[in-house]
């Protein structure tokens, strides 16, 4: 949120108190999750020049710790209260920091990263890496903020209200104001900001306002299915000097607002509702180093089975389908020598209006167990669509209602609405019994022969008048819901299929979701600009600690033209994971034109022929905690020309892919310094030190696909 009126003033409705002087600091033991020592700093909201200034003043309690080498956590508290928000689960290491407090500073050091706070002076914080300042919190950047809008003086008590206002309040007339905590971290000149999950706007986030709240808004809006309160700040090196790279992870599950170099143009501001704010600075020598450390801190990535990297074919969404339709598509792919790995059944494998009842529609699929065996006999894996919402028409609704398995309203009734399914209810994954019930429903399908699940939705979770079984704040549970949902499904598959075979195909995600691969980009359009939107979203998501990502080949909405289908097929089969899926149109190539068949066959075979490279790179990416599909800046951080590139990427460390996003076949892209071989036409180019911009034209059987030699 924006609280300021220009650089110096606050907006009229906000009372902003900032730590002005840290008056005490000490080492504390036994309070951190990994059992190591921490530093605690007490900073008052006014300068302390005399004893009288120790009265009628608030303060922030700042606890500094380290969960891993080169990672420093900062927790800022105003009142020591439980906001009832789930913090994201972290996986700390046993790292003992160096802590020193003297007359002027309080310091904590982890590896080569150092936190330094001023004492008995204008309060500010510096974060130094390898001896140089990389960011910091300037004087008055931190803040404890009350929203006094609509309140009368004396009828509201904010913890930091000036003594005169407090004295006007009489017993019984006090009403607490909404409260926020804010931090602002400075940016060095020339620093680009990336990440925040799957964001479809400009790839470099400088100048944007970003709210980390999961929403079902498609791939062409400011909303996101996968909001991650993490950003990567990067500044390329010049004249042989190393660049500056660090990440900032805000450990708040409830919606958090980021003002990226806009409210204060040389800072990233972030704020959240409540009495506390927790964030981590993650430093490293390269973007990969930083992202890898963040990935490990939040649980690390999991390597999906090799079969998931092949081609997935879907029934599509609202199209008519039955076993006969499905087999016709599968046989059609085989007849045309197009390798197929997975067949996916979308929503209407169940009866309409009953999602989810987890029962096959017997009119269309009279012998589901036999059908699944017939698909397995053809060498295919089977995926089916699910979501975490239960329609009132589903036979399962009464069960969940009576046993208390759904999210409730404040009056004790089930929280319901008619969006998506009539009278739907939300499975409450904070209730262990509800989790077991939901997993049991899926267990029947796995026993029948289903190999994996597409875990759709998970974003439209109520944040108001909603009561969860664990008593948590509904705003805090909103983003965290997808983690509980995907974890329940993934855990069931691990239990039944084994750790090496478990996989979901998920749309929503939050921090730590890389433990439950794979994720795809959501509802895009069958248009060239939506290819670009999808890729920007994917590269932002992959800058945020995730390793694998996919998208609907051909676009989800609308009918795809033959040109869109063929160009997107190239892009899709040169992505981490590859799935044909649509809304109103089947996505089998022969329904477009004969060349589409040839394009699909060529690029599917190309991927299968190079599976040793792709799966080997996937294994290494999991090990390092970095993406398989990676932005150009991440692979070439020393080349400033790569900093803003968002229509090309590296697939692993050696393959450069520039999808063609025009019907004409015109494409412009950038080759960094080095020796490159075109994988499809055999050309070899020696690119000079400053890189080379390319402008070319490709037919539908080719695209810029280069291998670094």
From TrEMBL:
One of its GO terms (biological process) is carbohydrate metabolic process. Residues 302-616 form the Glycoside hydrolase family 31 TIM barrel domain. It holds the Pfam family Gal_mutarotas_2. InterPro entries: Alpha-glycosidase_related, Gal_mutarotase_sf_dom, GH, Glyco_hydro_31_C, Glyco_hydro_31_N_dom, Glyco_hydro_31_TIM, Glyco_hydro_b. Keywords: Glycosidase, Hydrolase. It catalyses: Hydrolysis of terminal, non-reducing alpha-D-xylose residues with release of alpha-D-xylose. It is an enzyme of class 3 (hydrolase). Residues 625-705 form the Glycosyl hydrolase family 31 C-terminal domain. SUPFAM superfamilies: (Trans)glycosidases (SSF51445), Galactose mutarotase-like (SSF74650), Glycosyl hydrolase domain (SSF51011). One of its GO terms (molecular function) is carbohydrate binding. Its EC number is 3.2.1.177. Residues 61-259 form the Glycoside hydrolase family 31 N-terminal domain. The keyword 4Fe-4S does not apply. Belongs to the glycosyl hydrolase 31 family. NCBIfam families: PRK10658.1. This is alpha-D-xyloside xylohydrolase.
């Amino acid at each position: 949120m924006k609280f300021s009126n220009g650089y110096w003033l606050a907006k009229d409705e906000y009372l902003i108190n900032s730590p002005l002087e840290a008056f005490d600091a000490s080492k504390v033991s036994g309070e951190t999750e990994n059992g190591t020592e921490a530093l605690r700093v007490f900073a008052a909201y006014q300068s302390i020049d005399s004893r009288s200034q120790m009265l009628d003043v608030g303060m922030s309690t700042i606890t500094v710790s380290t969960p891993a080498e080169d990672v420093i956590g900062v927790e800022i508290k105003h009142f020591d209260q439980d906001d009832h928000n789930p913090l994201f689960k972290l996986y700390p290491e046993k790292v003992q920091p160096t802590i020193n407090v003297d007359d002027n500073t309080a310091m904590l050091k982890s590896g080569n990263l150092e936190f330094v706070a001023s004492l008995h002076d204008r309060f500010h914080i510096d974060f130094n890496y390898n001896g140089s300042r990389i960011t910091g919190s300037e004087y008055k950047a931190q803040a404890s903020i009350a929203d006094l809008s609509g309140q009368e003086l004396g009828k509201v008590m904010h913890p930091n209200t000036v003594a005169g206002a407090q004295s006007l309040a009489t017993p019984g007339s006090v009403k607490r104001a909404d409260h926020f905590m804010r931090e602002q971290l400075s940016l060095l000149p020339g620093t680009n900001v990336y990440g925040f999950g799957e964001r479809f706007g400009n790839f470099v986030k400088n100048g944007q306002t970003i709210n980390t709240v999961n929403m079902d808004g498609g791939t062409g809006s400011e909303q996101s299915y996968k909001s991650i309160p993490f950003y990567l700040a990067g500044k390329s090196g010049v004249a042989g000097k190393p660049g500056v790279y660090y990440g900032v992870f805000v450990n708040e599950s409830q919606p958090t607002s980021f003002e990226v170099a806009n409210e204060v143009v040389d800072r990233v501001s972030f704020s959240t509702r409540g009495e506390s704010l927790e964030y981590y600075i993650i430093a490293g020598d390269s973007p990969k180093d930083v992202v890898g450390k963040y990935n490990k801190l939040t649980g690390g990535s999991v390597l999906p089975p090799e079969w998931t990297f092949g081609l997935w074919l879907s029934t599509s969404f609202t199209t008519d389908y039955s076993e006969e339709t499905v087999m016709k598509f599968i046989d059609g792919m085989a007849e045309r020598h197009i390798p197929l790995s997975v067949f996916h059944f979308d929503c209407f494998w169940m009866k309409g209006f009953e999602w989810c009842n987890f029962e096959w529609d017997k009119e269309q699929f009279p012998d589901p167990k036999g059908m699944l065996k017939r698909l397995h006999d053809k060498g295919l894996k089977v995926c089916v669509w699910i979501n975490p919402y239960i329609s009132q028409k589903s036979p399962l609704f009464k069960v969940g209602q009576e046993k208390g398995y759904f999210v409730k309203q404040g009056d004790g009734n089930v929280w319901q609405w008619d969006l998506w399914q009539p009278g739907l209810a939300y499975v409450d994954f904070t209730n262990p019994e509800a989790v077991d019930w939901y997993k049991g429903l899926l267990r029947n399908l796995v026993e029948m022969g289903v190999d994996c699940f597409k875990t759709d939705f998970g974003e439209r979770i109520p944040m108001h008048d909603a009561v969860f079984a664990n008593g948590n704040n509904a705003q805090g549970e909103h983003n965290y819901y997808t983690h509980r949902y995907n974890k329940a499904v993934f855990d069931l598959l691990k239990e039944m299929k084994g750790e090496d075979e478990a996989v979901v195909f998920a749309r929503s995600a939050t921090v730590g979701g890389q433990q439950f691969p794979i994720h795809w980009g959501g509802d895009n359009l069958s248009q060239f600009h939506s290819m670009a939107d999808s890729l920007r979203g994917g590269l932002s998501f992959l800058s945020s600690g995730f390793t694998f990502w996919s998208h609907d080949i051909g676009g989800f909405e609308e009918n795809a033209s033959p040109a869109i289908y063929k160009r997107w097929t190239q892009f899709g089969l040169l992505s981490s994971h590859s799935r044909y899926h649509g809304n109103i149109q089947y996505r089998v190539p022969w329904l477009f034109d004969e060349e589409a068949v040839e394009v699909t066959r060529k690029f599917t075979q190309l991927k299968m022929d190079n599976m040793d490279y792709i799966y080997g790179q996937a294994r290494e990416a999991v090990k390092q905690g970095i993406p398989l599909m990676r932005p150009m800046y991440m692979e070439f951080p020393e080349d400033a020309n790569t900093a803003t590139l968002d229509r090309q990427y590296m697939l692993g460390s050696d393959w450069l892919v520039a999808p063609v996003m025009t019907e004409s076949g015109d494409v412009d892209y950038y080759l960094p310094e080095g020796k490159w071989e075109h994988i499809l036409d055999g050309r070899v180019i020696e690119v000079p030190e400053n890189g080379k911009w390319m402008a070319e034209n490709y037919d539908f059987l080719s695209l810029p696909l280069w291998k670094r030699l």
